[in-house]
Write a structure and sequence with these properties.
The complex is a heterodimer of chains A (about 230) and B (about 325).
Chain A (H helix, E strand, L loop, with lengths): L1 E12 L2 E12 L3 E5 L6 H8 L6 E6 L2 E2 L5 H6 L2 E4 L11 H8 L7 H7 L1 H5 L10 H14 L4 E5 L7 H16 L3 E5 L3 H7 L2 E6 L2 E7 L5 H8 L2
Parallel strand pairs in A: 3-8, 3-9, 6-7, 7-8
Antiparallel strand pairs in A: 1-2, 1-4, 4-5, 9-10
Chain B lengths: L2 H22 L3 H26 L7 H21 L4 E2 L3 E2 L5 H23 L4 H20 L10 E2 L14 H24 L1 H11 L1 H6 L4 H27 L1 E2 L6 H14 L6 H19 L4 H14 L3 H7 L7
Helix pairs in contact in B: 1-2, 2-6, 2-9, 2-10, 2-11, 3-4, 3-9, 4-9, 6-7, 7-9, 10-11, 10-13
The chains are: A alpha/beta (about 230), B mainly alpha (about 325).
């Protein structure tokens, strides 16, 4: 069953067009990698899905047209966002960050702390005083506390130490095994190959390649990602 | 137990001990001053919900204070004149019962806050301040041109309203009622601040986009905060009118709105006992400096300047540090 469907999505920043036609489908329980070099429209696509900026084209989540919904309503439909740059509520403690975002469902603070035991150890610590990796874990935990049906991770491992990156990827694998639909944006092709079922590559605001992960050959990666 | 907790306990102890001493020393005027300070603290505690938690700088909170005052004045004047408030399809009588008046004051001012919030929360920053000021001025001039309830001269109530089991004409008993309300509201504020709603509201003040991304509407959070804030300030207005046995358009003036903001800023925005510290300090300045000079507010202005420039956490912050209120 298709959960998210984007068809010929276009978007602009003022007079500057950023997306020229992005197509993307994510089925329930499926993990899709979105790749592309810097400035190709990945984060803009995420912002459009989350209704943080206007877009044209078809934008459907679970059969509902997202194009006229405000961002908080889109989130309530079950789109959980882990934004680029983490952006936790800095003045709140770890526990408060989780509680502030909570909605009823299978995910609760205890389950988030089981996924990221470090958050349990730092429950009373202010978010601003956490390390970058811990803030990233908190950002993922906060998104999970909204009990989403699809999680979007925008550069969730960027700038983190290798050991912390490994923890984040392990958590993503756990979420995948639990049947969480995910859109994962990252630069690590090796990790994405292990975590995702399919991939979409964006180039200059267009989706130029889409297919199963195993079909993403070195040649395709060289051509579109410059790897 | 941190320094702020100790200071809060000392302030609360002062609010019990000083009036207690005044009863022992037969100083009813001191009790009246303490009652005035507690009622102002209650009004400021109401504003602290909107300003401290929600970041809403409202220059129209006198609307709620005045509506609370007029709710008391209108209901009590009909009761003392034995005339119905409304006599049409059904009849509404006036009342001298404080609980009924408090309920009417909180509900009417909460409704007014909802109406003002729905319209003014479409804006933010300076525009929000201007819209709330505009509503305040509209309410003020409406009261002035409302002859049925005294117009510019205001409305006098001959006897203070009653509360079951208490003699409210006894200053200390009326003070006790006001202090009980203040404690209840401060307890509610402390609970609210730690609740999911309070945390989300605090987050909406800091990063509204993030709050939207987790499925919450910052405007709705702020609207609820404004309604709660208006209801508490309205309740304070009803008590203030009962203290003076008089209500007039001055309760709705923009100067009154400014004074309520000053209580919060002097005491400490978002601090649990900030409104209490600010209101007590203000009433003390008004009493002592007012005895020295008619222009005592010049000194208040200097204090306000000092607090804003050197102690952004208000008096509480100056003593306890500028960190997060309950850190």
């Amino acid at each position: 069953m298709t959960l998210l469907s984007l068809t010929q999505l276009t978007a602009s920043y003022g007079a500057t067009q950023a997306l020229f036609g992005v197509d993307l489908d994510i089925a329930a329980g499926e993990a899709v990698a979105m790749m592309g070099r810097n400035g190709m429209g990945k984060t803009t696509t995420v912002r459009c899905i989350c209704r943080m900026m206007p877009a044209q084209g078809t934008l459907v989540f679970d059969g509902q047209d997202l194009s006229r919904l405000p961002s908080h309503r889109a989130a309530r439909l079950g789109i959980g966002l882990v934004p680029e740059g983490r952006r936790c509520f800095r003045d709140l403690s770890v526990a408060e960050n989780l509680v502030a975002a909570a909605r009823p469902g299978a995910w609760h603070a205890g389950r988030v702390e089981r996924l990221f035991p470090r958050l349990g150890e730092r429950r009373r610590q202010r978010a601003a005083s956490l390390s970058g990796g811990e803030q990233q874990m908190l950002a993922i935990g906060r998104a999970l506390m909204t009990n989403p049906r699809m999680l979007i991770l925008d550069e969730a491992t960027e700038g983190l130490a290798p050991t912390v990156r490994a923890e984040i990827w392990a958590a993503i694998a756990t979420l995948k095994a639990d049947g969480m639909a995910m859109l994962v944006i990252d630069k690590s092709l090796k990790e994405l190959r292990g975590a995702c079922d399919r991939a979409v590559i964006l180039e200059r605001g267009r989706s130029v390649w889409a297919g199963p992960m195993r079909a993403l050959t070195t040649q395709v990666a060289n051509t579109h990602l410059g790897l | 137990m941190n320094r702020e907790w100790l200071l809060n306990a000392a302030l609360l102890a002062g609010l019990v001990v000083v009036p207690g001493w005044a009863v022992w020393a037969d100083e009813p005027f001191t009790i009246m001053l303490a009652t005035r300070a507690v009622i102002f603290a209650l009004a400021a505690a109401g504003l602290n919900i909107a300003l401290g938690l929600g970041g809403l700088v409202s220059l129209g909170h006198a609307v709620f204070f005045g509506i609370g005052g007029y709710a008391m004045g209108v209901l009590a004047s009909h009761a003392q004149n034995y005339t119905p408030l409304y006599d049409g399809v059904f009849t509404i009588q006036g009342t001298k019962s404080m609980p009924v008046i408090w309920l009417a004051a909180a509900v009417t001012s909460g409704l007014a806050a909802w109406l003002i919030g729905v319209l003014s929360l479409r804006t933010s920053g300076a525009y929000f301040i201007m819209i709330t000021l505009a509503f305040g001025q509209m309410a003020y001039f409406f009261a002035i041109s409302w002859p049925a309830y005294g117009g510019e001269d205001g409305l006098s109530i001959y006897v203070r309203n009653g509360f079951p089991g208490l003699n409210t004409l006894d200053p200390i008993q009326f003070y006790g009622l006001c202090l009980a309300w203040l404690c209840l509201v401060l307890w509610g504020y402390a609970r609210l601040r730690r609740s999911p709603f309070g945390l989300a509201l605090d987050s909406a003040r800091q990063v509204p986009d993030r709050v939207r991304a987790v499925g919450l509407d910052p405007r709705r959070l702020q609207l609820v905060a404004l309604v709660l804030s208006g209801a508490v300030t309205g309740l304070a207005g009803a008590l203030f009118a009962d203290l003076n046995r008089f209500v007039s358009p001055s309760m709705l003036s923009w100067q009154m709105s400014g004074e309520i903001i000053v209580f919060v800023i002097i005491g400490g925005v978002a601090r649990l006992f900030g409104p209490v510290a600010g209101a007590v300090f203000y009433v003390m300045m008004e009493h002592w400096l007012g005895g020295i000079s008619d222009y005592w507010q010049i000194f208040l202005g200097l204090v306000l300047l000092a607090v804003v420039l050197f102690g952004r956490g208000g008096l509480i912050g100056m003593i306890c540090g500028k960190g997060r209120p309950d850190a």
